Amino acid sequence: VWANCLRVIKANIGEQSYRTWFEPIIPVQLHNNVLIIQVPSQFFYEWLEEHYVDVLKKSIYQELGHEGRLEYSIVVDQGNGASKPRTVNIPTARKAAYPTPLQQDNAMAASAMTASARNVAAAAAAPVSPDKAATLRNPFEASKAIDRNYLKSQLNHTYSFENYIEGDCNRLARSAGMAVANKPGTTSFNPLMIYGGVGLGKTHLVQAIGNHIKATTPDKFVLYVSAEKFTNQFIESLRSNAVQDFANFYLLVDILILDDVQFLSGKDKTQEMFFHIFNHLHQAGRQIVMTSDRPPRDLNGLEDRLLSRFKWGLTADLQSPDFETRMAIIQNKMQQDGIDIPPQVVEYLAHSVNTNVRELEGVLISLVAQSSLNRREIDLEMAKQALRHIIEEVEAEVNLDFIQKTVAEYFSIPVDLMKAKTRKKEVVTARQVAMYFAKEHTSHSLKSIGHNFGGRDHSTVIHSVQTVSDLIDSDKVFKGTIQELRKKFAGK
Ligand code: ADP
Ligand code: MG
């Protein structure tokens, strides 16, 4: 009967989904029109229920008539390999209540067991198919997943609360972070969402949370992962048929720190997976910490149901540090790295570099490098010299803007269109001309020019500059256009 059901299912869904979600199922029993199938985990069951309930129903009705029912047996390891069936009826199972955290813990532990058991079995089976080999090589090391202590947190120990300078710019975020670090999963700050611009200390703060928890409760499984890495791991697991292992791994985490969630924008499948993991962890009282480069309301391309989850906890922002905080950050950094800089230079730096903390640190590092290279003490003159290029860059940016505006106006197109993805002839020409002038009149690198034209790469810029040069040589009218435009930039 199950084989016939599978045929119906296979005809209705994709090959990959079929292999991932139906091949691992084991038919257990058929009695009084009730078919019992065994699935490897709670998560697996819920995924089936959420995504395949209709096709499952269809196949069961086709095989057993409308009296037919399907029950799941979810593998829960009892320590002796025995499995405890959990009965669920298809017509009523949809949106079944989440299991209690305790049940869930068991289910999670069980799924790790089954995943690793499967891997071990796969390893024993010879010859190993390339597919299986990929599963074994999967980055989550499911076979170790049973013992959480093996698991790496991916934390960088240099980030702590002690060296995270407090200021008005980060007071709320920092204290919420400390509350979470002291009582993960039990405050109302779950999830904790930290947002703020680049270089303002998001990664530092959430790493500090992780490090603090790890230091105070070493048996907790803390995991730091960037949303980008999460996505890549997920894609890899799809590719190697190890989605189950992927999910199982994440369900073991006690404190999940997901950095830069904006990266999930538009990646629907990954979001879906994260949504499930989120629900499970949250339900089980595990702590979730996230960062984003913008407030949740501006996270376009993220599903509403995921965004609405973020509101369950606390959202706190990071602002640019004020002068006093910048002073304190520099002084702290000097102390930490054993750097000696005269007070008036510190003050000058704190005054001049007001963009973000990373930039501030960058200047500091380059000063130290120069000073040791030239065997010269760091002084005001050197600092001014070091900052010249930053200030020039700011000016160059104004120029780039001006060039884009002027060229766009000349060709009667909106500036935005010039940065957009279109290949329309007039737009392409305008874009190439603007890039040409950007190269000629600013100190921007090719990479930076490309970046400022809607994120294109440096080879596109090279190509544009070449095309324009060629046209100047071959086309008199075009040459006139360029000359006219060049006048507008003369003296700039
Ligand atoms: P983001 O993740 O927001 O882009 P990071 O956390 O990587 O920023 O911070 C950039 C650099 O600035 C890091 O080296 C970090 O240690 C430092 N930094 C940011 N904020 C602070 C702060 N309040 N105190 C000390 N160092 C900070
Ligand atoms: Mg970061």
Description:
Pfam families: Bac_DnaA, Bac_DnaA_C, DnaA_N. InterPro entries: AAA+_ATPase (IPR003593), Chromosome_initiator_DnaA (IPR001957), Chromosome_initiator_DnaA-like (IPR020591), Chromosome_initiator_DnaA_CS (IPR018312), DnaA_C (IPR013159), DnaA_dom (IPR013317), DnaA_N_dom (IPR024633), DnaA_N_sf (IPR038454). With 492 residues, this protein is of the alpha/beta class. The protein folds into 4 domains: 2-96, GMP Synthetase, Chain A, domain 3; 98-318, Rossmann fold; 323-378, Orthogonal Bundle (Helicase, Ruva Protein, domain 3), CATH 1.10.8.60; 392-489, Orthogonal Bundle (Chromosomal Replication Initiator Protein Dnaa, Chain: A), CATH 1.10.1750.10. It is 57% helix and 9% strand. The strands form 2 sheets. A 5-stranded parallel sheet has the order 5-6-7-4-8, with helices on both faces. Helix 3 links the parallel strand 2 and strand 3. The longest helix is centred in the last third of the chain and has 31 residues, at 380-410. Residues 77-148 have low confidence and may be disordered. Magnesium ion (MG) is lined by residues 202-203, 259.
Radius of gyration over C-alpha positions, nearest whole angstrom: 29 Å
Task: Report the sheet-strand fraction.
Answer: 5-15%
Structural class: alpha/beta
Tell me the total number of β-strands: 8
Features:
lipid binding, five-stranded parallel β-sheet, Rossmann fold, three-stranded mixed β-sheet, Helicase, Ruva Protein, domain 3, single chain, binds adenosine-5'-diphosphate, 492 residues, 57% helix, Chromosome_initiator_DnaA, DNA replication origin binding, alpha/beta, Trp_repressor/repl_initiator, GMP Synthetase, Chain A, domain 3
